[in-house]
Design goal:
The chain has 263 residues and is an alpha/beta fold. The chain has 2 domains: 131 residues, Ribonuclease H-like superfamily/Ribonuclease H (Nucleotidyltransferase, domain 5); 65 residues, no CATH class. It has 8 helices and 8 strands, in the order αβββαβααβααααβββ. A hairpin with a 2-residue loop joins strand 6 and strand 7. The longest helix has 18 residues.
């Protein structure tokens, strides 16, 4: 006991003669005490294992049934999916069909990490297991989704508002309304963004003294058409002039939000 006391005293004297600078008291509090588990995330070095996104929506109306999904790559490249359902179904079944076909498309692309979004809280909560359904028509969809989810490395489901899911809603509505005959292949639809009306782009550049809006102004003030116009061109000019009006010889154009701009 005496020998141990001498050693302990020697250690205490050594620490007292050589204090540490910038020492901090030990904190035994576990800061991340709310963390239950840690899962392996997506590998940022592998393009196919980076986190992708999928948005889906279903439509069931008097014109038919359809589903739409959009898969978004990490580089924000979009892969749209639109399918017409040629069988009777409810809105919930259409939503499940959209989710299933969207996940199958993601599996075909070899995606491993996926975040799924939809504006139907019912479907999202049922897919995640928070809510259970007793509908015999929906139970097989839940079982199918469970098997599809297992084919991903990481997948999560999130609810979003309807205004943030308009593209997939438009795809689903288009698929529901379109009439497709068997054996006919529909070419992909290309959507472009243009800032000017097509009529204005037809004005020749060498007509510097004749402004592009002169025909519109003449139609509003005189109800006259330029010579040589066909009936379809006259109808186009008439529809185009409906978005303009004149006040004190100044031509104004009405914007999409109701505001007016001087031409």
């Amino acid at each position: 006991m005496v020998q141990k006391s001498v050693k302990g005293s020697a250690i205490a004297d050594h620490l007292a003669d050589n204090p540490l600078k910038d020492d901090q008291p030990l904190d035994f509090q576990f800061l991340d005490e709310s963390i239950c588990t840690i899962e392996e995330g997506c590998d940022e070095g592998n393009d196919k294992e980076q986190e992708w996104e999928m948005y889906f929506d279903g439509a069931a109306n008097m014109y038919g049934n359809g589903v739409g999904a959009v898969i978004v790559s990490p580089e924000r490249k979009q892969f749209p999916v639109a399918i017409k359902l040629k069988f009777d179904c409810t809105n919930n079944i259409a939503e499940y069909e959209a989710c299933v076909n969207g996940l199958r498309a993601a599996i075909t692309l070899g995606i491993q990490c996926l975040k799924v979004f939809d504006d139907s809280a019912l479907i999202i909560h049922q897919v995640t297991g928070e809510w259970r359904t007793k509908d015999a028509k929906l139970i097989p969809y839940q079982e199918l989704l469970t098997n599809l989810i297992k084919q991903f490395k990481v997948v999560s489901f999130h609810h979003l508002t309807q205004d943030k899911n308009r593209f997939t809603d438009a795809l689903a509505t288009l698929a529901a309304m379109i009439q497709l005959d068997c054996g006919i292949h529909v070419q992909p639809i290309q959507v472009e963004a243009r800032s000017f009306p097509a009529y204005c782009l037809n004005v020749k550049e060498d007509q510097e003294e004749y402004p592009w809006f002169q025909d519109i102004k003449d139609y509003i003030t005189k109800r006259s058409y330029p010579t040589g116009l066909t009936e379809n061109e006259k109808k186009t000019l008439c529809r185009l002039a409906m978005t303009f009006f004149i006040s004190k010889d100044v031509l104004y154009k009405r914007g999409y939000d109701g505001t007016y701009f001087i031409v």
